[in-house]
Amino acid sequence: MRGPLPLKWLAWGIALSLVALPIVGVLNGWFASQRWPVRKIELRAEYAHVSAEQIRATVETHLAKGFFAVQLADVQKAVAELPWVERVEARKQWPDTLRLTVYERQPFAHWGEKRLIDRSGEIFEVPGAETMQGLPQLSGPDERLAEVIAFHAECMREFAGSGLSVRAVDLSARGSWRLTLASGALIEIGRVDARHRLQRFLDVWPKLAAASNGPPVYVDLRYENGFAMRWALPEAPVSSPSPGPAPAGRA
Q1: How remote is the C-alpha of 6 from its chain's centroid?
Q2: pTM score, two decimals?
Q3: Dist CA 110 CA 95 (whole Å)
Q4: Looking at the domain 136-230, which fold is it?
Q5: Residues 231, 192, 117, 74: what is their CA dihedral angle, to the nearest 10 degrees?
Q6: How do residues 6-54 score in pLDDT, each as one tens digit?
Q7: C-alpha dihedral (79, 83, 88, 90), degrees to nearest 10
Q8: What is the DSSP string of 57-105?
Q9: 69, 74, 149, 222: which sits with the fewest CB atoms below 10 Å from its CB?
Q10: How far apart are CA 31 and CA 61, in angstroms?
C-alpha cells in the first residue's frame, strides 16, 4: 500500500520543476533575455562633480539585455568606479525602469600632493584634485591618516580665537609634526609631547601678539622648556632720490 507514494511525490516534484524552471530562468535572464527591455533610467544624484551623462553612458552598456537579465550588482559596480562616486543604490521597477541613487564623495581635505580625503575619512584620487581650492592640506603616512585627521581637528579647536589660522598639518615618516599657518608661517612641533608643546605656545601667544606687529614667520617648539620664534625683518625704508643741482638761471 505504501509503494506508490514515492512515485506520486516524484511526479509532483517533476511537475513543480517544470512550472518553476521557466519562471526562475526568466527572472535570472537564462533565456528570453532580450525581451522586456529597460527603456527608462531614473537618476537621483547631486551633480557636483559627476554628470548625468557619465552615469547614463556607463549604465547603458549593461542594458543590452532584457529587464530580468540586467544584473544590478554589475550596474552598481560600474557606476561606483566613476571618479567622485562613493556608492550606488540600484533597483528595477517593472516593466521597463532602472532607478539609481548615486552618492558623491564629499572632499574634506587634500592628502599629500594629488589625493583627497572624503568626509568618511577615506583617501581617493580624482583628476585635477591638486587644483581644488579652499581645502586644508594634510599629509603623512597613509596608515596614520586617522591620527592626522584627529590632530588637525584638535588644532582647529585650540587655535580658535587666537588670531592664527592653521592651513596645513604634516606628519613626517619619522613622526614629527609641523603646522603651516594661513600667513605662511611654519610651526615645528616635533615628535615628543606635541600637544603639550603646542598648548604651551598658545597659552603665551596672546601676550606675544600684543607686543608684536603680526604673526611670526617661524616657531620652533622642539625645546624642552620653551620655544624659539622668528619674525620677518622690517623692510628698509625706501629713500627718495636726492635732488640734483638747481639749473642755472638765464641772464
Answers
A1: 63
A2: 0.76
A3: 45
A4: Rossmann fold (3.40.50)
A5: 160
A6: 666 555 555 554 444 444 444 444 445 567 789 999 999 988 899 999 9
A7: -20
A8: HHHHTT-SSBGGG--HHHHHHHHHTSTTEEEEEEEEETTTEEEEEEEE-
A9: 74
A10: 19
